[in-house]
Amino acid sequence: MESLAVQRMLSGGGEGALDERSRYLRRLVMRALLAADMGHVGSALSLIEILRVLYDDVVRHDPARPSWSERDLVMLSKGHGCLALYALLADHGYFPLEHLDTFCSSNAPLGGHPERGLEMGIEASTGALGHGLPLAAGVAIAHRRRKSFARIYVIVGDGELNEGSNWEALLIASKYKLNNLTVIVDNNADQICGPIETILPLEPLRAKFDAFGAETMDVDGHDLTQLRAAFDYRVPATPGRPRVVICHTIKGKGLPFAERNPAWHYKRRFEPDLIKEIEIHLGGPLRP
User: Fold this and answer.
1) Residues 6 or more apart from 56 whose CB is under 8 A from it?
2) What is the DSSP string of 257-286?
3) DSSP assignments along 49-61, one per residue
4) How many CA atoms lie within 13 A of 226 on its CB side?
5) pLDDT profile of the chain (288 residues), mean per 10
6) Nearest to 153 by CA among 124, 130, 190, 114
């Protein structure tokens, strides 16, 4: 059973209407989707504020030095949400915005799941769900042994937590006291086949993470202030515990007709009337 605070988040709490930057980043996502005329919409739109806060406000990174040894690492384990990651990386100058127009085309640099390429800011090849957190735990151990101050952030989906490899990795993170690791859960309450509560219930999710030795918190995944506070590694974590941030989000956030609509998990064929409607909701043209 969810707490009253979590229930308020899910019923429309947080910062209210999206600001211009959040709408702009969603327009970049839709720009790539229109170019391919297909892609994962709902999963990308639930991630925007999470990735925005990481790249705008929290992680140490430098597009001019993408291989900088002391950079913080962001790994998107739920690889089907990659368009949100591509939008942030393009906006920060890791690659030209025009690359979005070649999404999923033959020999294009941006595919339907991320492929590791440090020159483009992509830290890991992901999409086989359940692999990202084990990989991130291994990277966190390596950085610890190098006495690096880098932070590792890994974003997993709630449906992805069906995979037992995540929980094995959490046991390892707890054993090795990886307080340089932050696990971010995009908890939009839906997966490809239906609601999480129907497919394989996760609640009480926070209690599960706590039981695996994590320092766990719930936040509104579209509230910039809450996200900044939760991700800020300058705020002391509990010594020797990995941090888990459960971000309560809305799948398809920003497009009312797509929000929590399973038909928008993956979408094909964007007709002209639909494109106009999307542009109205996102406050501008989708094509350059």
Assistant:
1) none
2) TTTT-GGGSSEE---HHHHHHHHHHHTS-S
3) HHHHHIIIII---
4) 20
5) 47 67 98 96 97 97 96 97 98 97 93 95 95 98 96 97 97 96 97 91 97 97 97 76 97 96 93 96 95
6) 124
Q: In this predicted structure, what is the pLDDT of residue 193?
A: 85
pTM: 0.94
Among candidate residues 254, 282, 257, 287, the one with its CA nearest the CA of residue 44: 254
Q: Are the C-beta atoms of residues 168 and 89 closer than 8 Å to each other?
A: no
**How many angstroms from the chain centroid is the CA of residue 153?**
10
Identify the pLDDT of residue 238: 75
Token code pair at residue 255? 């497009």
Helix (H, G, I), strand (E, B) or coil at 76: strand
Instruction: Output the CA–CA distances (angstroms, integers) from residue 2 to 205, 212, 223, 256, in the order listed.
Output: 9, 19, 19, 24
All domains in the chain, ordered by first residue: 4-282 (3.40.50.970)
Residue 46 contacts residue 253 (beta carbons within 8 Å): yes
Cα atoms in the 13 Å half-sphere on the side-chain side of 54: 25
